[in-house]
Amino acid sequence: MTVLTDLVSAVSGGSVEIVDLTAPLQASTPILNLPEPFANTQPFALHEISNYDAAGPGWYWNNISTGEHVGTHVDAPNHWITGRESADVSAAPVKQLIGPAAVLDASDRVADNPDFLLEVSDIHAWEAQHGPLPEGGWLLFRTGWDARSHDSAAFLNVDENGSHTPGVSVECAKYLAEETTLFGFGVETVGTDAGGAGAFDPMFPCHHYFLGSGKFGLTQLQNLAQLPPTGAVIVVCPLPIVGGSGSPARVLAMVSR
Ligand code: MN
Asked: Domain ranges in the chain?
């Protein structure tokens, strides 16, 4: 037996479960809405080529149009000005697209405060309980926000003061980017930063520090509640868009049961 045949046996036997962390990709998938004067992304759309009809009597197929940053997607370092000289999404190192995932659950506090910000003290408290963050791995921030992903208004949670969604404080974003060996940071919300992070200094600190450190972001995950705090392995598969700043991605987790 080898590691891989053992893995296949474990998956078929159920002792390793595959959990899909990916939101369905469709026209109703929520997208980021930047205020004026900034340009916005297109949503996902299907454009039919043929459907067993005169345009193609024996086959059904579509063109698709989408922004790079739509649905469950990867942010590459070159998405942000601080990482503009760093990797595009096609250059994501495949060895780190499969890696250990730590899950930090703040869903109870987010339920009371949608503007909740993760702090360095939360990272230290998590490490005191579960051990160090995984070397070169991923930190996944569970907020319970995936329960809103079917409803764009609830997901973006905008009022007259802007968007109210959880994220990371400036200090914590800098700490995770510069003081840990994490490769990536994943969230359940539309972006890795808080809804109010446009007003932070620097603005959008998770993007600023994480992508500026050559690391990767991962957004709109779901089903993180099915993952343990430690021990899961995630498989992150963005499209290798040459020159791209990100890509919709299929994200799976392997979990021992
Ligand atoms: Mn993005």
From this structure: 2-31+68-256
